[in-house]
């Protein structure tokens, strides 16, 4: 690939690292670990303890694997996942109660193209180890929404909401691509409106969900895919909009789907 002129490359660096799902941690095969094992274990336990104290069977937790100074204004996190309190089978066959973490990851470019994604269940330690900042964003759904999400997550109907074509700034009003936060949004929407019809979900989101506006100039949009194939924007008309912690939490609070949304700082 030919190198881009310096002024274009600089512009792209303002855009490419910034979006939901843009992190090594979104490719489980090669996570960019930021915390030591002991610090990650303590932070994971802190998040679990916080959720348990609130009686959360299902929560949505966000992290960033990039320093916040490299993110655009108004976007604080790059990855989100469902945390579900349920039976977990250990490697030695024991069954314990704990939080399982349900993610959408993009491919690593070797076993799967980076423009494709897959669903993976892992654990709080995996999630915490990749954070580059000392906080996470948390959404606690209402008890009724937790009940609905609990019944959907991990089922074949949940799997059918997964769009395998991946884009960093996927348009949540459009069905062509998904990133990790748009997948969360689609699952929340399916639970809120009690439908797994993807066309209906997208129609409802166009009517009721306000995405986060991402500042991206014409040159970045036109040349971005040359620098990173995940930066696909052909699903956008006009401004680039995507789903983020900020827009998902606002949507859930405004529609009465969340009991609270808050930031938890690492002790």
Automatic annotation (TrEMBL):
Pfam families: DUF2145. InterPro entries: UCP028477. It comes from the Bacteria. Residues 1-20 form the signal peptide. Keywords: Signal. This is DUF2145 domain-containing protein. The lineage of its organism: Bacteria, Pseudomonadati, Pseudomonadota, Alphaproteobacteria, Caulobacterales.
